[in-house]
Amino acid sequence: MIASDEYDVIVIGGGPIGLSSAYHLSKRRARTLLLEQFTFVNQLGSSAGVSRQFRIPYPEQYMVKLVKQSIHFWDELQSLTSVPLLDTVGTLWFGDPSVHTSEGNIAEAEAALKAEGVSYTSLDRKALEQQYPFRNLPEPYVGLFQAQGASINLQATIETLLASNQNSVHTTMKSNAPVTDIVRTDGKFHVTTPLGVFSAAKLVLTPGPYANSVFHLLGFHIEATYWNMASAFYKVQGPPVKYPTWFVFQQPNGENGNEFYGFPEVSWNYPGYIRVASDFVIKPLDSPEQRTFVPNPRELAFTADWVRQHMTGLNPVPEFTSTCLVALSKIKNKELLIDFAPPSVPGNKDVVLYATGWAGKFVPILGRILSDLALDGRTDFDISNFQTGYKYFKVFDRATGQ
User: Fold this and answer.
1) Is 58 a catalytic residue?
2) Which entry of 36, 87, 103, 372 is annotated as an active-site residue?
3) What is the pLDDT of residues 102-116, one digit of tens each?
4) 227 is catalytic
5) 261 neighbors 307 (Cβ within 8 angstroms)
6) Is 103 a catalytic residue?
7) 358 a catalytic residue
8) How far apart are the C-alpha atoms of 140 and 125, rounded to whole Å?
9) Is 28 a catalytic residue?
10) Which partner for 230 in 73, 185, 290, 300 could form a disulfide, CB atoms 3.0-4.6 Å apart?
11) CATH architecture of 51-152+225-329
């Protein structure tokens, strides 16, 4: 097979993580091709809206440490643009102290923050309602506030990475280029797209929830579940209300998972409105192709009812509704997966990948980690808790589709 173009690394998937990977590869002067199956700056494989939460609280110390390490890379990215990428409003975790969710537990998060020397403030129910615009919270509820939390301007983040890659002499970008075949011969991967065949010694796979459509081409499959969560904006009424980024821990109530998260009002995403979303689904999807931008009406109703009961200064009628799509590993804390391809793949150590989990806050550092793995076969950052492919990779037979 003769490739029409040759590169050092091909990155498959042009979302935020793929753009960040290409950015860090170009910093090391690696000839990089970035392939995106749709157009760049799309939301076809991602969450609703163009905000994400940057927060340090996690129940695991290694996650707190990784977020702390990411701050340097956010600062580096910020130096490339005059548009603020982070609106620092703080992070508020609150709710039932006995609840353990995919996000963790409040007491466990406090312990992890203490272990990493991160300052925070503890609050009881009375303090929660006095200091923040929530109301009618049950008596046992407690909370923690961490001041470095922020809303991420994801649109500006993507555009900054996109511009850097477009301006780099080391990076080539191609949109509307879905990968239809990958073959390894003579120590190189030959990647077929409608735009031609391209070859490289290394691959970085960042296809988001569409991971298996790429992984299948290499003969393996990842076990994942797909959540298509309800999201909506609620109009601010009356005087402006100042919300931090927040997450509430509550016991599920039947099919109502009863876990919600939200953002403050931001200038870049429906100013005059505040976004609130559910952090559960009544029924997961089997594949990302089942995704719809119309939220499940029951999930949306549960969210709107929580806004009506517990949030002040908002009209509880949901507007600008959409969905948040995410691929999640089938483990309790829905861990990130960062690894090499399984040994069944020829040249597996030349294929690195990111799949599953919420990673918006890690965009700049994950690009660095994936570029390290691709070029050096290792990274100085501790990813031992994310290298779990041996648990979740399964052989896939392209001939039988199983």
Assistant:
1) no
2) 103
3) 788 999 999 999 999
4) no
5) no
6) yes
7) yes
8) 7
9) no
10) 300
11) 2-Layer Sandwich (3.30)
